[in-house]
Amino acid sequence: MPRATLDYETSNSEIEAFLERPSIRSTITALIIANAIILGALTYRASLPEGMVDLLVFLDAAITWVFVAEIAAKLYVYRLQFFRLGWNVFDFLVVGVSLVPGASAFTVLRALRVLRVLRLLRFVPMMKRITEALLKSIPGMGAILAVIVLVIYVGAVMATNMYGATSNPEVKEMFGTLPDSARTLFQLMTMDGWSELLDAVTEDGHPYAWVFFILFIFIGSFAVLNLFIALIVEALQAEQKAAIEEKIEAVMEEHGGSAGVTHAIEEIRARDESIEEALGHVEEGLEEAESDRLEMTRMIREMHAEIRSLKEMLAARG
Predict the structure, then answer these.
(1) C-alpha span between 174 and 180 (Å, rounded)
(2) Fewer CB near the last or first residue (10 Å), C or N of the chain?
(3) Cβ atoms of 94 and 69 closer than 8 Å
(4) CA distance 257 to 254
(5) How many CB atoms lie within 10 A of CB 63?
(6) Taking a C-beta distance cutoff of 8 angstroms, is the pair 258, 252 a contact?
(7) How far apart are CA 193 and CA 183, in angstroms?
(8) Burial category of 110 from C-beta neighbours within 10 Å (exposed 0-12, middle 13-18, buried 19 and up)
(9) Contacts of residue 205, Cβ cutoff 8 Å, sequence gap at least 6
(10) Residue 189 to residue 191: CA distance in whole angstroms
């Protein structure tokens, strides 16, 4: 069998062409959505009729075997090339998890079969682009995470020293030890109940605790956490730029390089100019026709006036 390709535009065998048909991809997408609905409905199996549960379980198994057949066909077509794409590896793993026996030792793995829903990330172009941008931003996220850990550690050391030596059990639970302070500051960074935390420390005899709390919120929440958003936006912009460049390269290949693209653009402009010129001639012709029509109307009116004058003259002579 000829070597298969890893794109949707070309194929070297009938099986490959079949697998890469848009209708097949749409069918797999529909099955993924249906399987997600079935798995959600099965969480209510205790309140569903037994016949309905049996039907849902059968449909779940049937869809699973369709996915297995799809993966098997791709493995036959692409061979070891199949594992060159990360999305193919992801599909292989999530479908493989669905085949794990349902024994108690594998209960957690069986629960992971809902991960098949995540295959939508591959089949929906916009979701795929966003996911790839997120994956590309992971190294930068690691650096930001290190900054967050450092900020929390420094803040935890300060908070333990300032508020940890107390007899108040509530404050002692929040800032009594370094891990307790780190956990509390992480909660503070998410701004979950920060006012209650501040009130508890203030009532414990620290009226200026608001300075520390507000500074930590500004640094940890408003500044550092927003770096994640900036990083993701930058990754999305880079992904969008790459997609535009791919389209430009595709156009250049279609027209035989940059010279071909320039020639094609010139042809389009020349065609537009010729159309505009033709429209100009038509407009001029219409203007001339309108002028001729007005002139003819004027002449006819003059003739009517002369005829009317002649009739009046003849009537006056009797």
Answers:
(1) 5
(2) C
(3) no
(4) 8
(5) 19
(6) yes
(7) 13
(8) middle
(9) 166
(10) 5
Structure tokens given for 84: 């060159």
Cα–Cα distance measured from residue 19 to residue 10, given in angstroms and rounded to the nearest whole number: 11
Helix axes 194-203, 178-189, angle to 10 degrees: 130
CB atoms within 10 A of CB 204: 17
pLDDT value of residue 182: 92
* Contact criterion met (CB below 8 Å) for 59 and 38: yes
Q: Which two tokens stand for residue 211?
A: 């300075």
For the chain (length 318 residues), average pLDDT per consecutive 10?
A: 60 75 83 84 85 89 87 84 80 78 52 66 72 76 85 90 85 88 89 85 87 88 79 76 67 58 56 57 60 65 69 67
Tokens 């035989």 sit on residue: 256
Q: Which two tokens stand for residue 279?
A: 């429209």
**Where do runs of H (alpha helix) occur along 168-257?**
169-175, 178-189, 194-203, 209-216, 226-254
Q: Within 13 A of 37's CA, how many CA atoms are on the CB side?
A: 7
- H or E stretch including 52? helix 50-78
Length of the chain: 318
- 286: Cβ contacts below 8 Å, ≥ 6 apart: none
Closest CA to 174 of 196, 205, 191, 154: 196
Q: What would you measure as the largest C-alpha separation in the chain, in angstroms? A: 136
In the DSSP assignment, the letter for residue 119 is G
> 138, 140, 146, 174: which is closest to 159 by C-alpha?
174
pTM, to two decimals:
0.51
